[in-house]
Design brief:
The protein is mainly beta. It has one domain. It is built from one helix and 13 strands; from the N terminus they run βαββββββββββββ. Strands 1-2-9-10-13 form a five-stranded antiparallel β-sheet, with no helix packed on it. A two-stranded antiparallel ribbon has the order 3-8. A hairpin with a 2-residue loop joins strand 11 and strand 12. The chain is elongated and about 80 Å long. The N and C termini lie far apart (52 Å).
């Protein structure tokens, strides 16, 4: 019926139900439901420095390459009317619009400046509930690759020094968050409806560290 009532992080749907007397109207896909997801990771000991000793082994031996891949579809989100068109008196923006029966074309445009076409919706008549279901659209997917290089240097029998070079979002791929779900401002289309204003991951970040194992 709702995924956001007890979870403020579920911002892709209203944290309320349309009416406690018509809870079936809120039946829909959960806000955390991802249709497709692929995760992979690897760890590879680089074959350098075998058979060497001394300074050369300390330079080229003991390197380990690691990586993590995350590829998934978008989260569902709920288009909103922006006002209490149903007349229930609920001040939260929980009401949804109607599907526009005269709309032609693709609802999902797929651009950050217009992820979906607001003209695919119309305001429901005052005093009625809209027919757009909860979680009826999906936001952008995500593709992210992290990688790291570890270098182990044995200082003594009890101490090992590990150098770590870690890169997050190696490909600097932009991953966008879900769009603004509020379609209408009063009785007109909102200029920010369907617009994405933030990313869901950071840009490429690189960090270095030393770790002492004992």
């Amino acid at each position: 019926m709702n995924s956001a009532i007890l979870a403020p992080s579920a911002g892709n749907e209203p944290p309320d139900i349309f009416s406690p007397y018509h809870r079936n109207l809120n039946r829909g896909i959960a806000s955390y439901s991802i249709a497709h997801q692929f995760n992979a990771n690897f760890s590879y000991q680089l074959p350098f420095g075998n058979g060497t000793s001394g300074v050369l082994n300390r330079l080229i031996g003991g390197w380990q390459w690691n990586g993590i891949l995350n590829w998934q579809g978008g989260f569902p989100f709920t288009p909103l009317a922006g006002s209490n068109t149903s007349g229930t008196g609920d001040s939260n923006q929980s009401d949804v619009p109607n599907w526009n029966p005269n709309f032609k074309g693709n609802v999902i445009v797929g651009r950050p400046d217009q992820w979906f076409d607001p003209k695919a919706f119309v305001l429901a008549p005052q005093g009625t509930f809209g027919n757009v279901s909860r979680g009826s659209l999906r936001g952008p997917g995500l593709f992210n690759v992290d990688a790291s290089l570890f270098k182990r240097v044995r200082l003594s029998e009890s101490y090992t020094l590990q150098f770590r070079a870690e890169t997050f979002n190696v490909l600097n791929h932009p991953n966008f968050s879900y769009p603004n779900e509020v379609i209408f401002s009063g009785g007109t289309y909102s200029s920010s409806g369907g617009v994405i204003t933030q990313t869901s991951t950071t840009s490429r970040q690189i960090q270095f560290a030393l770790k002492l194992l004992f």
